[in-house]
Amino acid sequence: MSATPKTYHVKSFGCQMNVYDGERMAELMAAQGMTAAADADSADLVVLNTCHIREKATDRVYSDIGHLRKKARNAERAAPMIAIAGCVAQAEGDEIIRRAKVDVVVGPQAYHNLPALIAQAASGTAATDIDMPAASKFGALPSRRRVGPSAFLTVQEGCDKFCTYCVVPYTRGAEVSRPFAAIVDEAKSLVDAGAREITLLGQNVNAWDDDAGTGLHGLIAALDKISGLARIRYTTSHPNDMKEGLIRAHAEVAKLMPFLHLPVQAGNDRILKAMNRSHSRDSYLRILDRVRAIRPDIALSGDFIVGFPGETEEEFRDTLSLVDAVGYAQCFSFKYSPRPGTPAAEMDGAVPEEVMDDRLQRLQAALNRDQAAFNAATLGRTCSVLIERKGKLPGQMLGKSPWLQSVHLMTDAAIGDLIEVEVVRADPNSLAGVAL
Length: 436
Fold this sequence. Notes:
This protein is of the alpha/beta class. Helices cover 35% and strands 22% of the residues.
């Protein structure tokens, strides 16, 4: 029999959705009277909130389990209770208990049951819950009490797009939108708990809708009316769901920040079709043209995969030319990673690792060039900066510009303050500013 844990530590991998889920699991355990530990090595319970998008992320989970147990042995202390949550838990289920002898496995739609699973594990029986119940988990979660200046709020989960490389439809389930009233209530509680900025989250966040046909733009307009909320963002969007109302919101809603993360994945139509992406190169670029027409200063972000099965050098060059055409402010880029159970994992034409490495380096060089250029274009501008945390130097604070750039400056402003700043230096990955 394991002792009932008194302290906990949550370590989240992957997307912002996992960060949100990790925060909610921490709140669940705090509501049970448990105390947050300073780090994983000093906790009675460690929750590894996992990502299954890439193979290395999955491997890292098992590596972390071994590390935790080795550290405990070296420190001559009992090994912590280990709970595996998130998408790896959903995909592998009891196999994780067999392979790694962990105590709890809980999927992303069942983590509201974590206290009961911990109690079962404390009684000596490993516990698993990877159900995807029809009833929403959100109603079982405690109210938000204390958050930072910038907070995440999940409004939509799951995916119906079935991109051939992606496990999300299998690990997160079908697209489901949370009720309008529940989202507004949680947004208000986040503001009451200290948030000045809220980022709306979803696997396809712009697919959010309700029975009234409100659409994400209508939800954003409602949140715009919350007193004390200064900024609104949303991620991750799908080109197929980028409707006219949402595009117009970027001009009509002052609190909606000029930033759009809209993954394209590749710049060649044959590859996009093989990926089962519902857009073409041209339709994607036309969406960006519409957005820029209504909000010329918008910062654009995206995702790219290189080395998808069968990708030729010429097709990869189409991706580079798309990058040149767009001029992204920031991006995420990856080598293709086959995930078991996805259609792409069975496709012929695997691209050699060394070719993928070369293509990723060339792509990232172009993306880094454009990010540096975007940052340089803000030099001399005045903008608002939301102070989020202290910097490394005495008197230094760090915050975010409207375009999601990191800004560091010397100021006596407090965490949570929204101040006017002049950008005096533009580095490739951040800005330096002077408070006005």
